Amino acid sequence: MFQTEPILFLQQLGGPFATDLLALVSALGTRDVYFFVFIVVAFGYDLRKGWIVGQALLWTTGLTIGGKELFALPRPHDVDSRVFDPILGRPTQEAFMARGAARFLGSLPGDVVAFYRSGTGIAWGLPSGHTSVFSALCGSLALAGERRRWWIALLAGGSIMALSRMYLGLHFLADVLAGLLLGGAVLVALDSAFGRSESWLNVSVERASRQLAEVPFALWLWLAPAVFLPLSLNGEAQVSPMLWGLNLGIWQSARAGRLAGATGGLRRCLRAALALGVGWILHIGLEISRSFSLLERSPLIDALSSFLELWLLVVVSVALARRLRLQG
């Protein structure tokens, strides 16, 4: 599954239209797209369902980055110069040629792996982050919509993203399969905890507020995110602070009875637009404050900024929507 032949086969089949289309699909797997979808679901629809989407995105992101650091394996274009960038129309390196796995279940050559692990600064491939997070997004949207066969959305979205990443020479078959399995595992956990008929998704706002104080939720909200602290301390990803910020904002909104939004298409659109504006202002403001801060950029400052960005997004957006009578 670490062979480059399937990728070369896909690239030979493709043309300008396929390249543009699959590049567009790959571009959907970015932070801005995920942030936009989360805000639309959470503030344009329901905060509880947006929370499920946010959990799926952040947990899958953290586990994916941890997996990349654990396995530390190069990408197809790093091991075979025959794999080219379809957009640029040329190979991305010339150091290795045809150094993928020799057989389907074989591993990458040890000298190639050792070369890249010695400090070349490349982005690791296994598992595919685009595949894992995008498949989790598609599945979480179906789960939040109370679709019992959420795995269909996960497989459909993940397969399309996997095809684009292989065609672009960025991932092996093993990478994208690992991404699909990882996204699916996160969705299974969320479905087991919150997807049942009497789960937090379906109960009243008052009962949801009480459930947030129970031990299982307390463990999920406050203790579980600490598993990603090593990534935060190393400056890899601020997943723990983002989860804590999101969870604290939702917890405060639940305590105030502000989880459910007012109905009506116009009000939903206005709430989503308001939250998008708040998120943009917060992101720009925090970036400017860090640029002019006397403190040097550090994992601690990044962690605080990531926490504040998501916590303030929820709290400020809900408060403004309440004041403008857009929130139920």
Structure in a nutshell:
This protein is mainly alpha-helical and 328 residues long.
Offer a few descriptive terms:
328 residues; mainly alpha; 66% helix; elongated; 2 domains; single chain; two-stranded antiparallel ribbon; 1% strand
How is this structure best described in words?
This protein is an all-alpha fold. The protein folds into two domains: 1-202, no CATH class; 204-328, no CATH class. The protein contains 15 helices and two strands. It has a two-stranded antiparallel sheet. Helix 4 packs antiparallel against helix 7 (129-144), helix 8 (150-167) packs antiparallel against helix 9 (173-194) and helix 14 runs antiparallel to helix 15 (299-323). It starts with a helix and ends in a 5-residue tail after the last helix.
Number of helices: 15
Point out poorly predicted stretches.
none
Largest beta sheet, briefly? 2 strands, antiparallel
Q: What is the total domain count?
A: 2
- H/E series: HHHHHEEHHHHHHHHHH
N-end to C-end Cα span = 51 Å
What's the pLDDT, averaged over the residues?
85
Alpha-carbon Rg, integer: 21 Å
Shape: elongated
Q: Give the tally of β-strands.
A: 2
Strand content: under 5%
